[in-house]
Amino acid sequence: MSDLAAPHILALTAYEPGKPEEELKRELGMDDVVKLASNENPYGPSPRAIEAVSGDALALHRYPDPRGHDLREALAAHHGVAAAQLCLGNGSNELIDLICRTLASRGEHAVFGHPSFPCYRIGSVAQELSFTAVPLREHLHWNVDDLLDAVTAETKLLFVSNPNNPTGSYIAKGELERLLRSLPERVLAVVDEAYVEYADADDFSPATELRDARDRLAILRTFSKAYGLAALRVGYVLGTPELVHALNRLRAPFNVGTPGQVAARAALADQTHLRGSVDATVRDRGKLATALEANGLRVAPSQGNFVLLDVRRPGRAVYEALLHEGVIVRAMPAPLESWIRVTVGKPEENQRFLDSLTRVLRESRV
Ligand SMILES: Cc1ncc(COP(=O)(O)O)c(C=O)c1O
């Protein structure tokens, strides 16, 4: 049994997704559950996206457009690039894996931050790459020199999540540009911008504005977060045509379904809806942080649609106690064992979280 999978795969810690609402409802026999665990958009997608997937023109008996022509054309117009610079993925998660499989070979090296999104590590291990997980300063802050110092003659991939999940921290424009310019030519810099729409710091810049700084650059975006389409699994890479060409060699032919392609195009066209939900979340992110700080808790400044806070006791126990309150958040692995991450929900959801957290901490249930 133990030789069923390769040893490096068996040694992997699998990605632990946020607990689904329905699962908690089943477990606790509770109807009223709030999920603030997966950085989803509580306002959902544009009504136009919902309309687009409920029409009968979807031809569900046909395979989807294998190249996602219409969505890529819409994205090309949106970003002011050629469609040949875009590759769609079944969520950006698939693209992280595809980048590892396509662009690095066994024995080469990858660099990413820690704590950061676990799938950079999973993709690297699956491809039998060696890697350096660069500790963020105080577990929270990027340092570009630390990343550059980790680069070796074998480094092929460098991943940064900007803003970073789970810390909410970011690499400022000047530093990101310095990183992109300083990396050796062979390294592909992957800037994962899953939360870019929520970043509002004056010195934040999307990597799409820094494309001149580096040829080997893959920018990852997703429709799962601000566009509210997590269930449909649509992400994309923006890079050079050469990069897209390489990715297409291994990309599964029909990796993004028709509902996803159609809904993403409709959601992209409705920037008003996007702005409305992003503005509400950014406003409530500030309110949530202020309320937590008023309760004496340390909150990491966040540029994402989530907040990381130090509960000063085992975060897993607080997470468990919150589950019994019907509130799903996220416990953090080392080195953030005393922190939990909470997605910014609708105001009433945030209030329910705050009330439950206050009860759990006050009653010293953990
Ligand atoms: C930083 C980051 N990148 C990528 C993803 C993957 O998102 P998706 O596969 O839904 O596009 C996530 C999801 O949480 C994330 O936090």
Walk me through the structure:
This protein has two domains: 7-44 and 272-362, Alpha-Beta Complex (Aspartate Aminotransferase, domain 1); 47-270, 3-Layer(aba) Sandwich (Aspartate Aminotransferase, domain 2). It is globular, with a radius of gyration of 20 Å. It has helices at 7-10, 21-28, 47-54, 69-79, 91-103, 119-126, 144-150, 173-182, 241-250, 258-269, 271-294, 315-324, 347-362; strands at 34-35, 86-89, 109-114, 130-135, 155-161, 188-192, 217-222, 235-238, 298-300, 306-310, 327-328, 330-331, 339-343. It has a seven-stranded mixed sheet, sandwiched between helices. It has a four-stranded antiparallel sheet with strand order 9-10-13-12, covered by helices on one side. Helices cover 39% and strands 16% of the residues. With 366 residues, the protein is α/β, with parallel strands linked by helices. The longest helix has 24 residues, at 271-294. The mean pLDDT is 96. Helix 5 (91-103) packs parallel to helix 6 (119-126) and helix 5 (91-103) packs across helix 9 (241-250). The structure holds pyridoxal-5'-phosphate. The site of pyridoxal-5'-phosphate has 13 residues, from helix 5.
